[in-house]
Amino acid sequence: MTDADNGPAVAARAVDLRKTYGSGDSEVRALDGVTLDLYAGQFTAVMGPSGSGKSTLMHCLAALDAPTSGEAVVDGVTLGALKDTQLTTLRRERIGFVFQAFNLIPTLTARENILLPLSLAGRKPDQAWFDQVIDAVGLRDRLGHRPSELSGGQQQRVACARALVSQPRIVFADEPTGNLDSTSSSEILAFLRRSVDEFGQTVVMVTHDAVAASYCDRVVFLADGRVVDELEHPDRDQMLEHMAALQSAAMNLVD
Amino acid sequence: MLRLTLRNLFARKLRLVMSALAIVLGVAFLAGVLIFSHGLSHTFDNIIKGSTPDALVRPVGTASFGQTAPSTLTIPPADVARLADLPEVARADGSVDGAGLFLLDRHGKLVGGQGAPTLAFNHSGSPNMLGENILDLRSGRWPQRPDEVLLDHRAAERGGYSVGDTVKVIAPSGDPVRTLHLVGTADFNGGGTAGAILVIFDTAGAQQMFLGGRDVFTTVNLTAADGVNQAQLVAAAKKVLPTGFTAVTGDKVVDESKDAVGQFLGVISTFLLVFAIIAVIVGGFIIVNTFSILVAQRTRELALIRALGASQRQVTGSVLLEALVTGLVATTLGVAVGWGLARALAALFRTFGLDIAGGALTLTPRTIVLSYVVGVLVTLVAAYLPARRAAKVPPVAAMRDDLVPKERSLRRRTLIGAGFLVLGAAIAVVGLFDPPGNDAAWIGVGAVLWILTVAAISAALGRPVLAFCRNVFQRLFGTPGRLAGENALRDPRRTGATASALMIGLALVSLIGVLAASLNSSLGDLVDKQFSADFVVQSAAFTPFPTEVGDQLQKVPGVAVVSRQQMANARLGGIDGDNTFIAANDEQLTRIYDLDVDAGRTSLRGDETFVTKDVADKHGWKVGSRFTLAFPGGATMRPTVVGIIEPNVVTGQINIPLDRLEAAGVQRQDSSLSIRLEPGADAATVHRALDKVVAPLPIVSVQDKQEFGDSIRGQVNQLLFMIYGLLALAIVIAVIGIVNTLGLSVLERTRELGLLRAIGLTRRQLRRMVTLESIAIAVLGAVLGLVIGVLFGVLLRQALADNLTSLGLPLGQLVAFLVVAVVVGVLAAIVPAIRAARLDVLRAIATE
Lengths: 255, 848
What we know:
CATH class of chain A: Alpha Beta
CATH superfamily of chain A: P-loop containing nucleotide triphosphate hydrolases
Strand order of the largest sheet of chain A: 6-7-8-3-9-10
Radius of gyration of chain A: 18 Å
Helix content of chain A: 25-40%
Number of strands of chain A: 10
CATH topology of chain A: Rossmann fold
Shape of chain B: elongated
Distance between the termini of chain A: 43 Å
Oligomer: heterodimer
Distance between the termini of chain B: 30 Å
Number of domains of chain B: 4
Shape of chain A: globular
Largest interface: A-B, 33 and 27 residues
Order of helices and strands of chain A: EEEHEEHEHHHEHEHEEH
């Protein structure tokens, strides 16, 4: 399902996604009817306070979790109909991941970690693309090292390279800078930005860091499991304003 | 602290169960063997006591067990009457005991196979030393005519006979197959027969069967008059006994029987106990490993306790307390399982014909105490090292993120270990050069040292094997294979320790395998060299058979020579000398077999003997020496040594002419016949004709060289597979260890597995990965075990080269063991792999 006629193509789409945990009094609605298009070739941030459902949304869109109802579509494939093995293959071939922590397999070298999704699928890497990605993350001299011999920032860059190497349709990043110092953070964000600008990659990043979100083309705000707002090409001040507004709205609700 | 420990235990119920299972099985085996042994000896004690009179009159030089052929000496009724007339004697009952009688079932097959003996005697109604009947009638009536017979009820059952049927038996002399009428069943008063087959005649019937119908007796049962004790009874009886007979107290007979049975039972018990101990030791290895992993996983918690003020002692104590509770629970379960196992063992032995009264399989205090001491002690000792390590966790580890404690380098341990390996090898090699003491024991010490050292440094030794596995896996299974190999290599100590448990089992299995193969090959050489008869006729259990068999075989066309041999007991040096087996041969034997003569000659005339070199050396005999042999009943001979030969499978150590044995009052039977054919006779045709003759006599079989070799190999292999079966338990316990380690590893790597799943590892690939890791561990255990087993098997064979003249390497079996190890790996991985595949990807990768 593409929208070639009406603006940019859709890389992933949520249609009235709902996800509830528990039942009765203890029911928690993590997602309460989210409908959202994520456009190809864009760097999108999903923001929101803790418990807003942003991670759940990402998990559902990234084929890691199944929604209670609604539809998640990635690259034109409706996920609800797929079995575990098909979902796994889809993740392997069309989705890239960067997690907040524990991104790498400790027994493998940086190079092996980067190539892992390909080797799991039994595919050969595209050498030119591999070189391009490695140079972009600046890891050429560290490829033979194991994760324990790399700094936190270097480990995250390896994770980014891994997410890109299989040329996925969409990369999901879950708080990729959450555990990093500011210098390493900006390196990672700059790289993700570059991958969108230079390689035409699609990146969706879950974050609650306004600075991180300011690298993005578009920011979607979530609160209480719903999309409440969105901004195109935001600057930092706009972002902070929105976050503050959401925060106080949440506070008022509690009161 | 106590409460915290108990909480820990309950929080980890599953792990407790898994690690305890190893001890449960070990203790169960131990307790089972103890209960079973006790039941076995209890059963025999009851029978012995219940069947022995106040005093027994018997030929001098006989004992109640361990004879192959009875004396031909008899006691007439007049003498029995004289005994009965003594004022000290309440009653004297003449008994007729016979040997060489076998019961056939409805289909003409031997009842009871080659297990427990057949006891045939007359029913005289004499009471036992407790004043009870020796036999209890269960159905029918006592025999009243010579052709009537009574069986114990199990034998009747096994033979498919009921009261009123005709029963077939093989007689010790005369016409081999006889038909008798079954008139009843009876059992020993003590309960059961322990598998022995009872064939009870009336006195005339027993006299016809065993004594050619003469009205005489072989022994006399004496019952004391009121107020007369056993010693007084014996003293009184001795005054009126004919020559060649003596009287012994019932207590002495009981002691003799218990000694004889005790030796036999001791062998069974010791044999089983060895395997129980191995199982317990393997269980201990698993406890060490499980507790090590548990402590490593709890580093942070332990550090927190330390930070909150617990002393090192308290932490060690806490882990040991956990071990104590584990040990207690496991042992309790183990004893319960062991009780069931004892019943299973009893059922197994029942199929071999050794019947054990169910009521005798009881838990004695000794069994309970021993099981608890072993179970709890092994658990505590095994947990001690991990407990010490737990105490060394610094409190600061609670605050740190990098809480994996830096393992100390393996180098020091490996170097020390290498030293021990050299030491072990040196000790074993010393064993090859006739050191003081037992050669095999030296090698055994070396082997134990190697097993322990290899287990301790398996982390370093295992690396090449695991790296090899990784490369093979990668080639065969791609990245999941590679990851599995890396995982096995990740914590070499843990992998090594887990593999070590399996190593012990496989080291023993392959060691035994090498020895058995060498034994088979040595026996094969021996048979090739020494089997120069065309056929040999023997009974499978080496029980003697009637001489009429030989008479009939002699008549078969094509048979040129039938040479006879009878094995018998004699006492060396006089009637009170050591009991020994001698062979009595006819003059044909030395014509059929080509014996290696060191000195003198082997053709005997009159009181002459030839002996093997080993006994000659032992007693200092040379050609021309003389020594005394005493036979049951008191007859003696003083043969002159005329030849010394090399030890062989054909003759006995001491050989006398067959007619001299008969002259010494030993009932003539044959133990083995050697047949040589006429020139030009067709072996296959004659073989068929011979088979036809022995067909009604299932106790004997006619074998040519090939069959003879096969039957010996069959016996070796039977024993071998029994040992393999018993060692299988050690391997089962090792499998539990692998399951445990894998399970804990999967738990530890939850996040990593989640990540792999997220980026594209399918469930199938994940399961394969866990399975391959398991296989790597199992293969490591197998390789270490096989190397040690083969190495020490070869050394041991060298040390025993006198008997194991040629080395056999069971290559097929060794490969099979490796395959078994792979299968073991696959089986051990089933549950952990399923658990890993079921991991919730989200939970695994969720950032807290």
